[in-house]
Amino acid sequence: QKPVTESTAKKVPTLPDAQTVTEVKHYTDRLFSFKCTRPASLRFRSGEFVMIGLMGDVNPKTGKQKPLLRAYSIASPSWDEEMEFYSIKVQDGPLTSKLQHIQPGDEVILRPKPVGTLVHDALIPGKRIWFFATGTGFAPFASLLREPQTYQDYDEVIITHTCREAGELTYGRDLIEALKDDELLNEVIGEGFWKKIKYYPTTTREESAKMGRITDLIRSGEAYADLDVEPLNPESDRAMICGNMAFNLELKDMLEEAGLEEGANSKPAQYVVEKAFLD
Ligand code: A2P
């Protein structure tokens, strides 16, 4: 076997699952989003995730490169021409230490096998839907908030987002602001559809308009009062949870206590939960 030099390493053929990066936006030193081309044959349901990554370094012993892949929620809606993802940056994270440096024109690997439980199919009909997110757990809701079915299925959509710092709310806030001008949603759902949305951003480690963990704010009743809504009720409420592990578990317990049952694709019920990706 020939030794691997820089010139032979570059001859590794483009992978069949390679997609081209079209846009990158940085929000804080811990967060960024990017868009890439969509595989022509890829169909997915808003809220699902795929495996995303980059080629790893060449192994000096074998001369081979292996893809480095992680599960990423698709942040773009099912009808969009492009794919969008929202990611953390971990300075020593195997993937995100590299992924944070991608530029338009670069290639990423996208395995076109979407899966996940944060989908409308996993919930039984209801009147109100709660999207509970922390950090990059906002990503699947960025997809679902741009999905017409969300507004066809529910009279009211409540999205809560808890982050450490105020700057970490920017991606979600910008996205919700932009919904007002979303042509497809205005056309399909009707002008003013966005009035169905109640947005509740909170921070825990930096001063902002609303401070505290959503779990505590719900327990104390403060969130209901701020939002001017009735407490959680298994008859009318459906919920999706996506955040860090401790948050997912705590909120799951709270929903169970309120009488909601966990659903799945194979057995739809009243709420579903998924862990946000961490490098
Ligand atoms: P806190 O700052 O009080 O830990 P992370 O960046 O660590 O994933 O956290 C994202 C957000 O989730 C932070 O605001 C964090 O609050 C919050 N959080 C962490 N654990 C829980 C939990 N069990 N319930 C509610 N929020 C939580």
Automatic annotation (TrEMBL):
InterPro entries: FAD-bd_FR_type (IPR017927), FNR_bac (IPR033892), FNR_nucleotide-bd (IPR039261), FNR_type-1 (IPR051930), OxRdtase_FAD/NAD-bd (IPR001433), Riboflavin_synthase-like_b-brl (IPR017938). This is ferredoxin--NADP(+) reductase. It comes from Shimia sagamensis. It comes from the Bacteria. Its EC number is 1.18.1.2. Its cofactor is FAD. Residues 14-121 form the FAD-binding FR-type domain. PROSITE patterns: FAD_FR. Gene3D superfamilies: Nucleotide-binding domain of ferredoxin-NADP reductase (FNR) module, Translation factors. It catalyses: 2 reduced [2Fe-2S]-[ferredoxin] + NADP(+) + H(+) = 2 oxidized [2Fe-2S]-[ferredoxin] + NADPH. Keywords: FAD, Flavoprotein, NADP, Nucleotide-binding, Oxidoreductase. Belongs to the ferredoxin--NADP reductase type 1 family. It holds the Pfam family NAD_binding_1.
